[in-house]
Specification:
Structural class of chain B: alpha/beta
Shape of chain A: flat
CATH superfamily of chain B: P-loop containing nucleotide triphosphate hydrolases
Structural class of chain A: mainly alpha
Radius of gyration of chain A: 24 Å
Radius of gyration of chain B: 18 Å
CATH architecture of chain B: 3-Layer(aba) Sandwich
Number of helices of chain B: 10
Largest sheet of chain A: none
Distance between the termini of chain A: 13 Å
Distance between the termini of chain B: 25 Å
CATH architecture of chain A: Orthogonal Bundle
Helix content of chain A: over 70%
CATH class of chain B: Alpha Beta
CATH class of chain A: Mainly Alpha
Number of helices of chain A: 11
Oligomer: heterodimer
Helix content of chain B: 25-40%
């Protein structure tokens, strides 16, 4: 709505600009719809789908009389959550903190390495195979060792999450840092811009859409990484809760922890999406979403 | 060189070869050009004749295989660092995350080791370019012609004495192109951008009408490898308007250039 298409100049936008201009023309017809209604339209489908799934689950467990130690009904999971919200919030906080810290660590290392690799084919050729080896290492296989290496607590958790987050962020960052408009790059060179100026003014902003695509993939992965770490070498956190309640055959608690994790993953994903829309309002992917 | 000023661009024996799959391709062969300060030179030739290569070597973006270029006595690299050379490419090459005004400011934020003696206020420049009300728009909200005007404003903002323009209107439709030609002439002649001295312009094009309307002289290049086949002086009075385009002289120059190009 804040981007009307300008028809003055009678000039049709050239080449790739044509499509975006056409889209922004379509865009200008949108403000007619009421904001509240459009929010409801966005929110209604996922929530109704969720409601239907939960209802089917509940009905199936009740009708078939599935025992609670196999699959607990949604109602008993909800009851468990309602009984002890501070317990799940506290354990969830531990997991959330670990996930965010590991995500930040892994992404930072990935972006710094990607900057180096985007500037040097030699570094890229040397480091990429190593990065792939790191990627294919089954985390679950080395996770028990981590307790031996790093002990319990935050250190093994950060290690595992950073390892998981690293690869998608690095691959996308290298592509993003390289995918600059060659004309713009030449223009900056004609101004005798330094490599640092090219990085800050052109390469990093150009890489943002790629980085956010990677963040959307890796932020839920960082929650999984935190759970795996807590499972093998944790003394607290939702992963530890699931492991303990599994061995106690306390399925409502285990499932309540899983539901908390799901909510955390969805919430983190939404936050990344919101930040993305804020920062990338100029980008074509932000139009009409 | 007509106006008696010393040459601003002096190119001697420019040669540039490219190596491709073991074969050597000559893009430019022994091109010599001299352009006076304040002169508008158009370079025209069949596509693939090395026009763009010529412009890039003149501006120091591409090293020469042999030959020499002097811009007001300096090498292109030195002149470029001193912000004496301004480019406009066929692609407007604006930063999509910056507004019009922020795009125009870009050259002032880059390479600041040398303080600029002169620079034009971005706001005044946008007024001159009739872009003032769009200063807070993003590039993709603008038409191709307007984007190209922003690109021109962005280059004028640091007041270079030499403008290298590489088919700047090549991607625009015919109607927009025609209005952009007159717009360029208007801005080139405006006292705000020339400070009493017109900028030297080297303008690469494949449009005969564009070359005749804009230029003081037109250099015709041959097919690859590019050589200067002829230099035609366009003796049409300025300011040139729509009427100039329908004059008999204009037609005669166009015919002359056309036959020169056909003979290549």
């Amino acid at each position: 709505m804040e981007r009307p298409f300008i028809e003055q100049d009678a000039g049709l936008p050239a080449g790739r600009h044509a499509t975006s201009a056409e889209r922004s023309e379509v865009d200008s017809s949108k403000p007619l719809s009421v904001p509240l209604l459009s929010i409801a339209r966005k929110v209604a489908p996922p929530f109704s789908a969720l409601a239907v799934a939960v209802a089917l689950w509940e009905g199936w467990v009740r009708l078939r009389g599935v025992p609670e130690y196999l699959v607990p009904a949604p109602s008993s999971i909800a009851q468990r959550l309602a009984e002890d919200p501070s317990f799940f919030a506290g354990q969830g906080g531990v997991t959330l903190f670990g996930a965010l810290a590991g995500f930040a660590l892994g992404s930072t290392i990935a972006i710094l390495l990607a900057i180096a690799m985007a500037h040097s084919r030699f570094l890229e050729r040397s480091l990429f195979p190593l990065a792939i080896m790191v990627k294919v290492t089954p985390i679950v296989a080395i996770a028990p060792l981590l307790a031996v290496w790093f002990g319990f607590g935050l250190a093994p958790k950060l290690f595992i999450i950073a390892l998981i987050v690293f690869f998608p962020v690095m691959v996308n960052a290298v592509v993003g840092l390289r995918s600059v408009n060659p004309w713009t790059l030449q223009y900056l060179q004609s101004l005798s811009a330094s490599p640092w100026e090219v990085l800050v003014k052109l390469r990093l902003p150009s890489a943002l859409p790629y980085l956010f695509a990677a963040f959307k993939v890796s932020i839920p992965l960082s929650v999984i990484g935190a759970v795996v770490a807590e499972w093998f070498s944790g003394d607290e956190g939702l992963g530890r809760v699931i492991q303990v309640s599994n061995s106690n055959v306390d399925m409502p608690t285990a499932f309540a922890a899983i539901v908390s994790l799901a909510a955390m993953g969805v919430g983190l994903y939404l936050i990344v999406s919101l930040v993305e829309r804020r920062l990338l309002s100029w980008h074509e992917s932000a139009i009409d979403t | 060189m007509g106006n008696g000023l010393p040459p601003q661009v002096e190119a001697r024996g420019l040669t540039r070869t490219f190596r491709n799959n073991g074969r050597t391709l000559t893009a430019l062969a022994d091109v010599s050009l001299s352009v006076a300060a304040g002169e508008f030179l158009a370079v025209i030739g069949p596509s693939g004749c090395g026009k763009t290569t010529l412009l890039r070597t003149l501006g120091g973006l591409l090293p020469l295989t042999s030959g020499s270029v002097r811009i007001a006595g300096d090498t292109p690299i030195v002149a470029g660092r001193a912000k004496q050379i301004g480019y406009v490419f066929q692609d407007a090459s604006l930063l999509p995350w910056r507004t019009v005004l922020e795009n125009v400011r870009l050259p002032l934020e880059v390479n600041r080791r040398r303080a600029l003696k002169t620079n034009l206020r971005p706001g005044r420049l946008l007024e001159l370019m009739r872009l003032d009300e769009f200063r807070d728009y993003y590039p993709r909200q603008l038409s191709g012609g307007m984007q190209q005007r922003v690109a021109l404003a962005r280059t004028l903002v640091f007041d270079p004495s030499l403008l290298l323009m590489d088919e700047p209107f090549g991607a625009l439709d015919e109607i927009t192109r025609e209005s952009m030609r007159h717009e360029l002439l208007r801005i080139w002649q405006s006292p705000l951008t020339n400070g009493g001295r017109r900028k030297t312009v080297i303008f690469v094009t494949h449009s005969i009408a564009e070359a005749v309307l804009l230029a003081d002289r037109v250099a015709v290049l041959t097919d690859a490898p590019g050589r200067v086949k002829a230099v035609v002086e366009i003796d049409l009075p300025r300011p040139r308007t729509e009427e100039t385009e329908s004059s008999e002289q204009f037609q005669r120059y166009s015919t002359e250039l056309r036959s020169l190009l056909r003979g290549t």
